[in-house]
Design a protein that fits this description.
11 helices; 6 strands; two-stranded antiparallel ribbon; Outer membrane efflux proteins (OEP); four-stranded antiparallel beta sheet; single chain; alpha+beta
Length: 442
């Protein structure tokens, strides 16, 4: 009985989750698990993080054991003695510990690995920002398509009502066949736009499904009267300056330049001597002798400890070539860093302009929508009284529903530009999706 209740409760929760509109936060959390581009970025970070312990290992002691065992057969001849067949058995083993004491190249390699991981961390943060924006873009594309379909459906209903009115007037002799043809033509175009919008919705749903791994329908949309936030601060120069230092791609390129500088030190360390502490313990055994008439066994145990100094003198120009290569990579990384800063500033400027201009556009389209509603009502009434013609009514309706469609696009685009603005300075996060969720009709 207990299990039946649990299954019933689970079914109820699943049913409720399907009835309730899907919000953008749910889509993002599904994408965190199922988006393959983001999964690739996460695994890339995990692999690069291993560069630090790999580089650290070259500074720590290493221990190895080497052993061998063998048999030697020979025909041995000594003076005044007939040749004899002899076999010699031998084995040996050596346990050796090596502790680097002075290895500048390994030290700079360890330092370089830390910068490389810092770069990977920044690139992963950029991947998180990209995922947030891609999910938002895909979600908004579906939402816009839903609102466009709703507007097109309302336009079709309005045109069908107008066609009925014109048809009645034609039968009564108050309207001409031209009025009917005009209305039918507009109705046909509206139905064509609806089909196009439905096809577009299928494509946008497929894009969202590719990221989330789940087919989503009935998405929550923006509340009709919601006031979209303006960017704070209201100075685009502040945003641009922050983007030049805080953008994840800029920080990744900064880490890459630091790694390149360490690479120069690492390459130049190839000229420096190395000093190692070496300690070993071993044993060897051999039976018989191939070089003396007497047969005897030999066994020896040995221990050794000492310092090993290696002074490089000439390596065929390899070290010099590595230094030249490292300097060129450092120069390249400086150029990449400056390019990343400029690109981040441009993205911040464009996103800021998108929000400011979008808010102004929304205000204008709201006014156009309200005026269009009044215009449709007035033209319909005037058409009934014979003051306006059918074409006036059709034009007013076309302007109204065009304003509705443009308003839906502008609202989502403005909100998306606001998220791009935050992403340009590396501050976009899950809390921003929570803020968007508060604006949706669930």
């Amino acid at each position: 009985m207990f299990y039946i209740k649990r299954i019933t409760l689970l079914f109820f929760l699943v049913f409720c989750s399907q009835v309730r509109a899907t919000d953008i936060l749910q889509a993002y959390r599904l994408a965190l698990i199922n988006d393959q581009t983001f999964r690739s970025a996460r695994y890339s970070l995990e692999s690069i993080r291993q560069k630090i312990p790999q580089a650290r290992a070259s500074l720590l002691p290493s221990i190895s054991v080497v052993g061998n065992k063998g048999t030697t057969k020979a025909d041995t001849a000594f003076t005044n003695v007939p040749p004899v067949d002899r076999r010699a058995h031998s084995w040996s083993w050596t346990l050796q510990l090596t502790q680097p004491l002075v290895r500048l190249e390994n030290l700079y390699a360890y330092q370089q690995s830390q910068y490389i991981v810092d770069q990977a961390e920044a690139q992963y943060e950029q991947a998180v920002q990209d995922l947030l924006l891609r999910v938002t873009q895909a979600y908004f594309d579906v939402s816009v398509s839903q609102e466009v379909i709703a507007a097109s459906t309302a336009e079709i209903r309005s045109l069908e009502e107008q066609l009925e009115q014109v048809t009645r007037g034609f039968k009564a002799g108050t309207h001409s066949v031209i009025d009917m043809d005009e209305t039918k033509a507009r109705l046909g175009l509206a139905r064509s736009r609806l089909v196009e919008s439905q096809n577009n919705l299928e494509g946008k749903n497929a894009e969202l499904e590719k990221m989330t791994g789940t087919h989503m329908e009935n998405l929550a949309v923006l509340q009709p009267s919601i006031q979209l936030p303006a960017p704070l601060p209201r100075d685009r120069h502040i945003w641009m300056e922050q983007a030049r230092s805080k953008n994840p791609e800029v920080r990744a390129q900064q880490a890459a330049m630091d790694a390149a500088k360490s690479g120069i030190k690492r390459a130049r360390a190839g000229y420096a001597p190395t000093l190692d502490l070496i300690a070993s313990r071993g044993s060897n055994y051999s039976s018989n002798s191939l070089t003396t008439p007497n047969e005897f066994d030999t066994r020896a145990n040995s221990s050794q400890i000492g310092l090993q100094l290696n002074i490089p003198i000439f390596s065929g120009g390899e070290t010099n070539a590595k230094v030249t290569e490292a300097i060129a990579l450092k120069d390249k990384s400086e150029s990449d860093l400056e390019e990343a800063k400029r690109q981040a500033a441009v993205e911040a400027q464009q996103a800021f302009a998108g929000v400011v201009n979008g808010l102004a556009q929304i205000e204008a389209l709201n006014y156009a929508k309200e005026s269009g509603q009044s215009s449709v009502k007035g033209n319909r009434l005037a058409f009934k009284l014979g003051v306006r013609i059918n074409l006036d009514v059709l034009n007013a309706e076309q302007q109204l529903y065009a304003a509705r469609r443009d308003l839906a696009v502008a609202r989502y685009q403005t909100l998306l530009h606001g998220m791009k603005l935050k992403a340009s300075v590396g501050s976009l996060g899950e809390e921003d999706l929570l803020a968007v969720n508060a604006m949706l009709v669930h």
